[in-house]
Hints:
With 192 residues, the protein is an all-beta fold. The chain has strands spanning 4-11, 14-21, 32-37, 46-47, 73-75, 79-86, 90-99, 107-112, 117-120, 131-139, 145-155, 161-171. The chain folds into 2 domains: 4-47, no CATH class; 73-171, Immunoglobulins (Immunoglobulin-like). It has a 4-stranded antiparallel beta sheet, with no helix packed on it. The protein is elongated.
Amino acid sequence: MKKLFLVILVSGSVITSFAQDKAKTAAKAEPKKVETTAPAAATKAVSASPATPAATQAAPAAQPAENPNAPAIKFKTEKHDFGTVPEGPQAKFDFDFVNEGKEPLILSNVQASCGCTTPEWPKEPILPGKSAKVTAIYNTQGRPGPFTKSITVTSNAKTPSVVLMINGTVEKAPATTAPEKAPATISVPDHK
Length: 192
């Protein structure tokens, strides 16, 4: 069975490759040399080890030019520490932001890391220079102890994804005991 191993060396605009027939003995195996021309953009050497299949690598695709007028989302803060909060009520914080770009900003999705955190955000476009907020609401009920949660904001901004963080500690609510109920009827012996 013949196995083919390929090593590509790129130097300027010339690609040299070697093919080796593994069926031949190691002493008699001579690499075959093949030369061809490559585009000037190919400047990276790629090699495959004898134990793995041949590898090839294409030149990276050209990135589209960044739109200088694109929306730009700028938060006042991306982290909030609630400190210690009591168990029961919801903990809320508004992450204020402004569109510093020259085109309308559209928040396509705002996703919390778990179901105990609910985000609220504007669904309409935020015009250039205007501000808005993403509200993080953490449900403390039944969740005593420390917490750290994230909210990922996805938009059409130059930076399409921003991660907001909230953390704090929920103080366990004091245990409540139900008052003892008196029996509905009391039997009292008749003393005569």
